[in-house]
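This section describes the prediction task in plain terms. A model, or a person checking by hand, is given the sequence of a single protein chain and must write out its three-dimensional structure as a string of tokens. No templates, partner chains or ligands are provided. The sample shown here is typical of the held-out split.
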Amino acid sequence: MADAGRGRGRGLALLQALKARMTESPASQEPSQDPSAPPSVAATPNVAVKPNLVPDTASSAAPSNVSSTSTIPGGRGKMAAMLLSKIQKTGVDKPMFSPASDVSPSPSMVGQGVGRGLQLLQNLRKQTSTSSTVDSSVENITKGLAASSVSSANLPGGKNKYYSEISQTEPVVMKGESGTPCDLTANFIYLKYKDNSVFEYEVRYEPDQDYKHLRFKLLNEHNHFFQQKAFDGTTLYVPHKLPDEALNLVSTNPYDNSKVNITILYRRPRLLREMIHIYNMLFKHIMRDLNLVRFGRQHYNENAAIQIPQYKLEVCPGYVTAVDEYEGGLMLTLDSTHRVLRTQTVLSLIKETVQTQGAAWKRYISDALIGTSVMTTYNKKLFRVDSIDDTINPRSTFEKNEKGKMVKITYLEYYKNKGIDIMDMDQPMLISRDSKRMPGSEEITDFMICLVPELCQLTGLSDSQRSNFKLMKDVATYTRITPNQRHAAFKKYIQNVLENESALNRLKGWGLTIAPETVEIAGRTLAPETLYFGNNVKLPGQANSEWNGDVGRNGVMQAVDILRWVVLFTDRDKQVASDFVETLKRCSRPMGINVSNPDMVRLPNDRTDTYVMALKKCISSQLQVVVAICPTIRDDRYAAIKKICCAENPVPSQVINARTIMNNQKIRSVTQKILLQINCKLGGTLWHISIPFKSAMVVGIDSYHDASRKKRSVCAFVASYNQSMTHWYSKAVFQERGQEIVDSLKSCLVDALKHYLRINGRLPDRIIIYRDGVGDGQLKLLKEYEIPQMEVSFSVVDDTYKPTLTYIVVQKRINTRIFLKSREGYSNPAPGTIVDYKITRRDWYDFLIVSQKVNQGTVTPTHYVVVSDNSPMSPDQCQRLTYKLCHLYYNWPGTVRVPAPCQYAHKLASLVGQNIHQQPSEALSDKLFFL
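The expected answer:
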């Protein structure tokens, strides 16, 4: 305690004086202040008045006479005592003390050498001069602050932070009502849990261990304490409280036999339902219990692999699992999947290429391997092949760290020590490059991994295999499984878990039980949409949502006559070109399109530069469209033609592979589709449907990522500019590395609104954006950053312009599957089936739509997340509009998986990213030139 006799007891003396005042009888005598008394020194910053020293009650009033010599011997508190003696009793029973952190010296008094003590007394004087009503109001504020205060356990980022992965708010339920009810099920399985606790611990190592796998090894030496655990290298979760003897452990480092002390510190209890990531880790362990092998992020059953020996392929069945909380509760998403592996090794492929190509083998093998993934046969890991090095072989050496020393060892010896014998000593090595941050370092380290071709197995299918129709058909019989087969796979998985003792014990250890059946859902099927063609033809909606035959028989809604056009062809395709032009004229009459004779340009050969030179000569301002007939498929030639026609000399173009129009039996149907495409590219309309909004703009956004151009990506923006949403304005912009995508989208939106204004004479009242290519982790960022930025761009067009904005994220690559219950078991739902409850996201306004007919395999619905919507549009209207837009993609006479603007944006982004590699010309922006 501070020594009052040395002038350091100001705070204590002050409290004693106040206590004396509260215990003695009141007096009105007031001592005279000594004018010769020296001023007090500035307050010491560490003086604090603790709230627990404030008396709870006061039985009598405090005296007004305080002796500065008897109570406070002297020192810094002298002036404080003199001021205290002037405080008059005003009927307040309980004096209020402010915390020390709230007391600061008055600016006017700092220069006089008086500080916190004087300020404290002034506060006391103010408080003691108030009435009891003020006291009650202060008490109410104090209670309010206490109720809203944040404890250290709730502070984000603190040591004792409380983090919940499951929000405590009510689920977001946005349900529609229109449509015919139907009974559905999905690949979701309920997980029931007891509301028991998970105990969280922090694991520390002495000396500290940088490598994560070593941390696991050292802790696993004491597995008898942690039979059920979740551990990430630092934080340990167990379903039971650890005994005292488990808190201080000693392990042996297997690499140098040194002793490592492990200290386990208790943090806090957690509820199991708050720990979603534990569930996902748990099911990864269950996959191992079921003897499934992990390839990448998925698990496969090697023992059930299906051999296709005629193509040197095998198909491995497997499962994908994910646990999350949805509107209907905690569920496991389970989907069956397949991985196609090639049974031949990389070495056998190299030998085949050497035999067939001779000295040019390296160029051919590079084209076949670079960019693909291979799997090492000894540990089932996947690696991307970045290059092939024929200057090294298995007898080459590399440096290896052994007990802290770098030693040279050959690849042959390295694998020999692992029990693997390499047979071919002269094979080249595959190089895989990787970059990652090493433990204890902030810098990213580049790695070069050398792989032995003999020990690598090819994965996936090559381009030549994909173009083999018979091969793909045979593979599809195993990969495109029916709804009944898929649902049977789910039942088999559940049965395996319930019958596997180890898996069952894992679930029981965490207080979990898995439901024996998939979840039941009540869905709705929207009525088929009526289509409108030219000549006032109305086509009633089809149950299968396809109108392939009707397109050729009926006239188009808006025809553009083809009067000035040119056809490029080679010598050997002269007859093919002639037949194509005649067929095109015959097909055009029923569609209501007039076609004149084209200028026929014969080329001496099929070289790329020959086509380029011919295009530059024949393209003029009066030309409507260019048709180029090519004898074979070549990417470089196609890219050169598109680059000239889309960017350098803008004109709509159509590139045709001669083989597709050689068959006389199919030439009519193929030519019909080509004619429809050309009509769209010239600004025509094929069909339309009833759109309820009179003044609305629908936007589709998608992106294309080109890995070969240093992560440069293309963002495509497509927006409607007429009421029936059949005419589209498009832009494509390049995204440099590190550039925010919202910057480009804002400029695209402004340009699209200006174009809408030029065409219609007014701006749209509402804007509906469908954004593709956004993952779950970006939804919050999109809502908080990108959408407000795009709303700001409205003022660029007009200061008073404020339309309603609906922003919908489109997700195609999902694991959700929906099945219709039928007499035969399970089947695919009809197009237009909607699910908007139970298996939808808990905290987002979202829904699922099955929008297309699938003849093979199981249909995958499309997931729509309404990230933001300030319009009065109801869930029914939003769902119905989304389904309507799936009818307006003119490259397919039927519904597609995503709304038409999204599919158009996808086509544009792919064309620019793969072929053009520069921005398309503004002259083509109001046409569908990219079909």
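For orientation: Confidence is low (pLDDT under 50) at residues 1-8, 25-114, 128-167.
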